[in-house]
Amino acid sequence: MAVIAEVTIVPLGTATTSVSSYVAACHRVLQEAKEIRYQLTPMSTIIEGELTDVLDIVQKMHQVPFDEGAQRVSTTIRIDDRRDKALTMEGKVSAVVKRIEKK
């Protein structure tokens, strides 16, 4: 079964306050991965796939800022692992939208 993970990777101690180049470099890793789905959001990236695949991709993404010259990286991962039914990004959003529309 698939999990949904929210990932935020922050390089620390860089020469600039901007992180967009690091985010873009991390997303190149995602573009190469065929076994997951992902969605860029303004504050993080959402990844959907099998747990082992998601954790493997996150590890590769965590390495990217180091490869780009960062000396310290802080990575936050939040995983939703539901085992009683299939879990998708769209399904989670749809469930909330349906409840909003009922009111």
From TrEMBL:
Highest taxon above the source species: Bacteria
Give Gene Ontology CC terms. cytosol
Pfam short name (any one) = Thiamine_BP
Thiamine-binding protein domain location: 5-96
Mind telling me which InterPro entries this protein's record contains? MTH1187/YkoF-like, Thiamine_BP, UPF0045_domain
NCBIfam families recorded? MTH1187 family thiamine-binding protein
**Similarity remark:** Belongs to the UPF0045 family.
Q: Under which name does UniProt file this protein? A: MTH1187 family thiamine-binding protein
Q: What is the lineage of its organism?
A: Bacteria, Bacillati, Bacillota, Clostridia, Eubacteriales
